[in-house]
Design a protein that fits this description.
alpha/beta, 25 helices, 723 residues, seven-stranded parallel sheet, eight-stranded mixed sheet
C-alpha cells in the first residue's frame, strides 16, 4: 500500500512523494512530466484496467555468445550455398536425392547436419518487380505471388524428400534464411515478406519434426557463417545470427500503455473502408465494431459469394440501421484483376481510406501430404490478396492497412504448413510496410469462440488439443477489445490471443513448453536436495525389475495416447486395438510421436504410429530401443553387461540389432553411421580386420541390415547364430 502526495509545480510538471501507510518514505520524484493522452489510448487503458487481455509480440532475446562448435559431418544442399559450404568445410549436393544416392553408393557418408541456404531479401533474390501505373520501373523491389511460389514450392518438395529418405534419417536439417525476421527495429527495413513466409512454413515443419529441423536467420557476415558450426551443439530449434552472436525468439506481453511507434491516423468518416472476408463471422464482427467504435460510415465488404453469402442481407440491414452505407460485392481477392476492378469502382468522392484484410481459407494436412495445389489454394486467398492490396494501394493516403493473420504463423501449428506460411507473410509484410513509412498492422489471432468458416470444422478434440498447448478461445468482446488496443498504436505485428498461463506453467514443468513461450512463465523451481529424476526411458527401465518393464512401457504409451485423444481414463486405450481404431489421425499421430519422444528421450520417426499400429506393438518397439540404448551406454562405460571387452560390446550390439524391427530404419541407419565412424578411428594396422579398414569401410557403406550382422560375425570373431 502506498500514499501519494502530488504537488503541481507547473502546468506540465509535478513533484511526487510516496510513503507507506505509516508515513515512512518510499520514493521522492523531484519532477514528473505530464503530456496529453489521446482519447484512443485512454480507451485502451480503460479496457485494460477492466481486465482486458494483453497483446503479445515476438521479441529476440540476446545477444548471447555462440557455444563451442559441435562435432560431426556436414553437407550443403542447393545452389547458392558455396559460401556456407566453404565456411563449414562441406560438400555441396543438388538436393536430398543426390545426397541420398551418394550415401547409397558409398561416395559420401550420411552427414550429421545438412544446411539448406535460402536467398533474400527478395531485392537480391531476383523476384519480379511490378511497374508503376505509368509503366515506369519502380526504384525498389516488391514481393509477388510468383516469387512466393518460386520460394515455397521447391522448399516444400525438398522438405518432403528429406523427411522421406530413410538414408538421411539420422541427420538434422538446418535451413539458413536471410531477411525472415528482424531482431531489432533497426532491421525492419531488411525484412523480406517472402522469406518470412518461408520461415512460417518451416515453423510447422519443425513442429511436426522437432528433432530434425532447425531454423536460422543470419546476416551473411563471416562471423555468422562461422557461427553455424555451433548449431549441432545447441538444442535451439529457431535462432538468429548477427555478427556471430545468437538471438532467440521469445513472446512477451506488450506493456499496458506505450507511446505509439507510428501515430495512427484517424478514420475518415467520408472515406470508404474495404473489408475482405467481410461477410464471414469475424468480418461481420469487425464491420460492426468499425461503425460503432471507430466512426466508419462507408463500408465495402467482399466475399467469394458476396450478397449471396449466408446472413449478408441481414448484416447490411443491421449496419444501415447503425448509420453506415454498406456495399457487399462478390470478389476473389486473390485474383489481381478482379481486385483492381473492385478498387476502381470506389467512388472518387468517397475514396478508399482504409483496408482490412480478413479473408482466408484452410486446407490442413501434415507436411508430407501437402502438394503445390494445396499450397496454392491457401496462399491465394490470404497471401496473394495481401500482396495485391499492398501493390494496388501503395500510392493511396490510407489511414490504416490491417491484416488478419494467425497464431499458426507464429508458433507453426502442426498440419498447417501452408496456412502458417501465408500468415507469416502477412506479419512480414506489415513490418516491411511500416519500415517504409506506410500504415500497417498485422494481428496474429488465436482461436475465437465464434465458429467461422476457418474454425467450424474443429471438433472438441481439436479444441482440447489447442487448450493443452495453452491457447484458450477468445470471446467476441475480448477479441474486439484487442483490436481496439492494437489500432491505438504499437508494433507492426502483434499476437492477439488468450493464453492460459497456468497451462503454460504445467507444460513447462513437464518439459513440453515451446521455447517461444518461456518468457511468459517461470520455470519449475529446482531443489538442490531433491533426488535426480530419471528422464529417459532407458533410465526408468533400469530402475525397475525385469518383470515390471513391459507394464511400465505399455502404461506410458496408453497414458500418452489418452492425453492426445482427450480421454481422462486410460481404460479407453485398448492394448491391441489399432491407433486408427482408437481415433488417431495424421495430426494426433504427430502430437503423439512428439510427446513420446520428449517422454522417452528416443528419436522416433514421424510414421511410428503407422509402422507399429497398436499400443502393444509400439511398447515393444520402445522397450527394445531403450534397452538397446542402455546396453550401448553400458558397453561404452564398462558398467553394463558387456563389460570392458570390445568384442563383448559388439555382441551386445548384435543382440540389440536382432531385437530391432526391420522397419526401424532410423535406428539401423544410425548404427551404420556409428560403425563407419568406429572403423575410421581404427588407426593401428594390426587392429584392422582382414582386407584392411578401407575394405571393411567400403563393405559397411553398401551393407544392408543383414549384411551388418554378418559382417560383425565374420570380421570380429563372432560365429553365426551365437548369442
Amino acid at each position: 500500500q502506498l500514499r501519494a502526495h502530488i504537488t503541481k509545480t507547473s502546468p506540465d510538471t509535478a513533484t511526487l512523494r510516496l510513503t507507506d501507510p505509516d508515513g515512512n518514505p518510499v520514493a521522492d520524484c523531484e519532477s514528473v512530466a505530464l503530456r496529453p493522452l489521446p482519447a484512443a489510448e485512454l480507451d485502451a487503458l480503460r479496457s485494460r484496467s477492466a481486465g482486458a487481455l494483453p497483446l503479445y509480440t515476438v521479441g529476440w532475446s540476446g545477444p548471447e555468445p555462440a557455444p563451442s562448435p559441435g562435432k560431426g559431418t556436414w553437407a550443403v544442399l542447393g545452389e547458392g550455398g558455396e559460401e556456407i559450404a566453404e565456411a563449414l568445410g562441406a560438400v555441396v549436393f543438388a538436393g536430398p536425392a543426390a545426397l541420398g544416392a551418394a550415401v547409397a553408393d558409398g561416395s559420401a557418408t550420411p552427414p550429421d547436419t545438412v544446411v539448406v541456404p535460402f536467398p533474400g531479401p527478395y531485392g537480391r533474390a531476383g523476384m519480379p518487380v511490378p511497374p508503376t501505373a505509368d509503366g515506369a520501373d519502380r526504384p525498389d523491389t516488391a514481393p509477388t505471388g510468383a516469387g512466393l511460389r518460386a520460394a515455397l514450392t521447391p522448399l516444400l518438395s525438398l522438405l518432403r524428400d528429406w523427411l522421406d529418405d530413410e538414408r538421411l534419417a539420422a541427420g538434422r536439417l538446418v535451413v539458413a534464411v536471410r531477411g525472415a525476421v528482424a531482431v531489432s527495429e533497426a532491421e525492419a527495413e531488411r525484412v523480406d515478406p517472402v522469406a518470412a513466409a518461408v520461415w512460417g512454413l518451416l515453423r510447422t515443419a519443425r513442429t511436426e519434426n522437432p528433432d530434425r529441423i532447425v531454423l536460422v536467420d543470419h546476416d551473411g557476415t563471416a562471423a555468422s557463417l562461422d557461427g553455424l558450426k555451433a548449431v549441432p551443439a545447441s538444442e535451439k530449434a529457431e535462432l538468429a545470427l548477427r555478427q556471430g552472436a545468437w538471438y532467440v525468439p521469445r513472446l512477451s506481453a506488450v506493456p499496458a500503455w506505450r507511446p505509439a511507434e507510428q501515430p495512427a491516423r484517424p478514420w475518415d468518416p467520408d472515406g470508404t473502408v474495404l473489408v475482405t472476408g467481410g461477410t464471414g463471422t469475424l468480418g461481420a464482427l469487425l464491420a460492426r465494431r468499425l461503425v460503432t467504435g471507430h466512426g466508419v460510415r462507408r463500408l465495402l465488404l467482399t466475399g467469394r459469394r458476396g450478397p449471396a453469402a449466408p446472413g449478408a442481407e441481414e448484416l447490411a440491414a443491421e449496419l444501415s440501421r447503425l448509420g453506415a452505407e454498406v456495399r457487399i460485392e462478390a470478389c476473389d481477392v486473390g485474383d489481381r484483376a478482379a481486385l483492381a476492378a473492385l478498387l476502381a469502382s470506389v467512388p472518387a468522392d468517397h475514396p478508399l481510406t482504409a483496408v482490412v484484410h480478413a479473408a482466408g481459407v484452410l486446407d490442413d494436412g501434415v507436411l508430407q501430404s501437402l502438394t503445390p495445389e494445396r499450397l496454392d489454394a491457401v496462399l491465394a486467398a490470404k497471401a496473394d490478396a495481401a500482396l495485391h492490396l499492398h501493390e494496388l494501394t501503395r500510392d493511396l493516403p490510407l489511414a490504416a492497412f490491417v491484416l488478419f493473420s494467425s497464431l499458426a504463423g507464429v508458433v507453426g501449428n502442426a498440419g498447417q504448413a501452408n496456412y502458417a506460411a501465408a500468415n507469416a507473410l502477412l506479419d512480414g509484410l506489415a513490418v516491411h510496410r511500416r519500415s517504409q513509412g506506410q500504415p500497417a498492422l498485422s494481428l496474429a489471432w488465436g482461436l475465437w469462440e465464434e465458429s467461422s468458416a476457418l474454425t467450424g470444422h474443429l471438433e472438441g478434440r481439436e479444441r482440447d488439443r489447442l487448450g493443452r498447448n495453452g491457447i484458450v478461445p477468445l470471446a467476441a468482446e475480448e477479441g474486439l477489445a484487442l483490436l481496439d488496443l492494437a489500432l491505438a498504436g504499437g508494433p507492426a505485428a502483434v499476437v492477439a490471443a488468450r493464453l492460459d498461463l497456468a497451462e503454460l506453467r504445467r507444460r513447462s514443468a513437464a518439459g513440453l513448453l515451446a521455447p517461444l513461450f518461456t518468457g511468459l512463465v517461470k520455470g519449475p523451481r529446482r531443489r538442490a536436495s531433491a533426488a535426480p529424476v530419471p528422464k529417459s526411458l532407458a533410465e526408468r527401465l533400469g530402475a525397475v525389475p525385469e518383470g515390471e518393464r513391459e507394464r511400465l512401457v505399455l502404461d506410458l504409451v496408453r497414458e500418452t495416447a489418452a492425453v492426445v485423444l482427450g480421454h481422462s481414463d486410460t481404460g479407453l486405450i485398448d492394448d491391441d486395438h489399432s491407433f486408427k481404431e482408437l481415433g488417431f489421425d495424421s495430426l494426433t499421430a504427430v502430437e503423439f510421436r512428439n510427446r513420446l519422444s520428449a517422454g522417452t528421450g528416443l528419436r522416433l520417426p514421424a510414421t511410428v504410429v503407422f509402422d507399429h499400429p497398436s499400443p502393444a506393438a509400439l511398447a515393444t518397439l520402445l522397450r527394445g530401443r531403450a534397452e538397446a540404448e542402455a546396453e550401448a551406454a553400458g558397453a561404452t562405460t564398462g558398467d553394463g553387461p558387456a563389460g570392458a571387452d570390445p568384442l563383448s560390446g559388439l555382441a551386445a550390439l548384435e543382440q540389440a540389432l536382432a531385437r530391432t524391427p526391420e522397419t526401424d530404419t532410423a535406428t539401423r541407419a544410425e548404427v551404420g553411421r556409428r560403425l563407419r565412424e568406429l572403423l575410421a578411428g581404427l588407426s593401428a594396422p594390426e587392429a584392422a580386420p582382414s582386407g584392411g579398414a578401407e575394405g571393411v569401410a567400403a563393405r559397411i557403406k553398401s551393407a544392408s541390415a543383414g549384411d551388418l550382422l554378418d559382417l560383425i560375425d565374420s570380421e570380429f570373431g563372432r560365429k553365426a547364430g551365437s548369442q
